[in-house]
């Protein structure tokens, strides 16, 4: 299907030239429509192809039918567990049914629903969530704020750093973000106080969906790791910076990160992302090479992705004045110091069991230049330099009523661009 990526159109007219969901994407998600029953679907233009309805047409057989049947429970875990062969089989059938000139257009058309009339849900039952720290520019920027003479700790260039997050508070795009309460230490004081965070921030990340799991005690080798990844999404790891500053030593983030994490609801498969793979950026002279278990020629040659990442903000005043969301950041996943395959392999090197539907966060993906920073902590240098918005307002950190939008786009000359859909959340006051 690689040759089809550049030229083929869909009979779903809205898909042709669609910013996110052309025929070349076909991401999967879980939606409800009318009866509130959760079901699996595929985004195509401004519509969703209902896989349950498609199954009933009798047009799908073999491994593709097995893949659809694995989605019937209203979550994608069983589908993820089937792995690469089933994903490819389903993708090929979907493409054949949706491509311009397809034989069964009238039957398939009856399986489409208007995406605007649907509610999106989490794609899978997330048993575990791990947040990594693979954006080296973010790590350096934050390190400079707190350790100007030693921004990166010695282990950073050897270990894909991560911590165990809170799966129960992950929510799909559009769910409000309630300002969290927590302990903070006021400047000049020796005793903490409890109250709403005053330094609420966003973090621009990608999410990595685990496909096939592994057994307890089993290492997933770097050569096999890509086969265990089902797809990617956008992820906003909301952060209470003042709570974080007080609690993070000695064991790292806790309540400053666990109040909510927002993800885009569509799983962009590894097959859709294949044209946008790139060589992993060469490490600077003097940096160590990864240890042997993390080093693969194939992964180094093809393990990175060229995904343009964007953050926008719209305040309450901007909405009332009819002002569009304002861009804060334009970054790229090529800033990742470690590949997603290295993240997965390192996660299992101690025998840790991963399960289908587990989720990784990449960590904040900032670029090296202003305008590419993936958090307000970096943009405002810890709150010292406010951002001036089109409404005349200033922001050091987020205020109630602010809405943050994450967007992603894969662009390559001669290829059809694909996107991830929106990942957004609006801040509401603390309880």
Throw out a few tags for this protein.
globular, eight-stranded mixed β-sheet, Fumarylacetoacetate hydrolase, domain 2, 431 residues, SH3 type barrels, six-stranded mixed β-sheet
Q: What is the helical fraction, as a range of percent?
A: 10-25%
Assigned CATH architecture of the largest domain: Alpha-Beta Complex
CATH topology of the largest domain: Fumarylacetoacetate hydrolase, domain 2
State mean pLDDT (0 to 100 scale): 96
Count of helix runs: 13
Stretches with pLDDT under 50, minimum 5 residues: 1-5
Structural class: alpha+beta
Specify the oligomeric state. Answer: single chain
Distance between the termini: 51 Å
Number of strands: 27
Describe the structure.
Helix content is 21%, strand content 25%. It is an alpha+beta fold. The chain folds into 2 domains: 4-121, SH3 type barrels, CATH 2.30.30.230; 129-428, Fumarylacetoacetate hydrolase, domain 2 (Alpha-Beta Complex). The strands form 7 sheets. Strands 6, 7, 8, 13, 14, 16, 17 and 22 form an 8-stranded mixed sheet that branches. A hairpin with an 8-residue loop joins strand 10 and strand 11. Helix 3 (62-69) crosses helix 5 (84-98). The chain starts with a helix and ends with a strand.
Would you summarize the structure shown here?
The protein is of the alpha+beta class and 431 residues long. It has 13 helices and 27 strands.
Itemize the secondary structure elements and their pairings:
Blueprint: H1 4-7, E1 28-32, E2 39-44, E3 47-50, H2 51-56, H3 62-69, H4 77-82, H5 84-98, H6 105-109, E4 112-114, E5 119-121, E6 129-132, H7 136-146, E7 162-164, E8 170-172, E9 177-178, E10 181-184, E11 193-196, E12 200-201, E13 204-210, E14 229-236, E15 239-240, H8 241-247, E16 261-263, E17 268-269, H9 270-273, E18 277-278, H10 297-302, E19 304-305, E20 308-314, H11 316-320, E21 326-332, H12 340-348, E22 359-361, H13 376-379, E23 387-388, E24 394-395, E25 403-410, E26 418-419, E27 423-428
Parallel strand pairs: 6-22, 8-16, 9-27
Antiparallel strand pairs: 1-2, 1-5, 2-3, 3-4, 6-7, 10-11, 12-15, 13-14, 13-22, 14-16, 14-17, 18-19, 20-21, 20-25, 23-24, 25-26, 25-27
Helix pairs in contact: 3-5
């Amino acid at each position: 299907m690689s040759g089809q990526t550049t030229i083929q159109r869909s009979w779903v007219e809205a898909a042709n030239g669609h910013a996110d969901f052309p025929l070349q994407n076909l991401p999967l998600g879980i939606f409800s429509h009318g009866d509130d029953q959760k079901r699996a679907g595929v985004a195509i233009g401004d519509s969703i192809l209902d896989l349950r309805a498609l199954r009933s047409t009798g047009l799908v057989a073999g491994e593709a039918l097995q893949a659809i049947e694995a989605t019937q429970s209203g979550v994608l875990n069983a589908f993820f567990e089937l792995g690469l062969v089933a994903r490819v089989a389903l993708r090929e059938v979907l493409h054949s049914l949706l491509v311009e000139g397809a034989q069964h257009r009238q039957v398939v058309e009856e399986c489409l629903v208007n995406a605007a009339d649907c509610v999106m849900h989490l794609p899978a039952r997330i048993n575990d969530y791990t947040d990594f720290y693979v954006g080296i520019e973010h790590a350096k920027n934050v390190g400079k704020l707190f350790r100007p003479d030693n921004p990166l700790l010695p282990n950073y260039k050897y270990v894909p750093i991560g911590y165990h997050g809170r799966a129960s508070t992950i929510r799909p795009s559009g769910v409000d973000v309630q300002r969290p309460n927590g302990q903070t230490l006021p400047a000049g004081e020796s005793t903490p106080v409890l109250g709403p965070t005053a330094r609420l921030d966003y973090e621009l990340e990608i999410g990595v969906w685990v496909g096939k799991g592994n057994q307890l005690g089993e290492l997933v080798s770097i050569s096999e790791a890509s086969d265990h990844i089902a797809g990617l999404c956008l992820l906003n790891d909301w952060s209470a910076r003042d709570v974080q500053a007080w609690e993070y030593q000695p064991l790292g983030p806790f309540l400053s990160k666990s109040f909510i994490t927002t993800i885009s609801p569509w799983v962009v498969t590894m097959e859709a992302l294949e044209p946008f793979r790139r060589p992993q950026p060469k490490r600077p002279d003097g940096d160590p090479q990864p240890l042997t278990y993390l080093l693969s020629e194939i992964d180094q040659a093809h393990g990175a992705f060229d995904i343009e990442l964007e953050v926008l903000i719209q305040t309450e005043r901007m909405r009332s004045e009819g002002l569009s969301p304002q861009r804060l950041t334009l970054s790229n996943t090529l800033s990742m110091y470690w590949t997603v395959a290295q993240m997965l392999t390192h996660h299992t090197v101690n025998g840790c069991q991963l399960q289908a539907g587990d989720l990784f966060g990449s960590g904040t993906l900032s670029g090296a230049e202003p305008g590419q920073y993936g958090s307000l902590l970096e943009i405002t240098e810890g709150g010292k330099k406010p951002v001036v918005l089109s409404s005349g307002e200033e922001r050091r950190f987020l205020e109630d009523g602010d809405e943050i939008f994450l967007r992603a786009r894969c662009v390559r000359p001669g290829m059809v661009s694909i996107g991830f859909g929106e990942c957004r959340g609006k801040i509401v006051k603390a309880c």
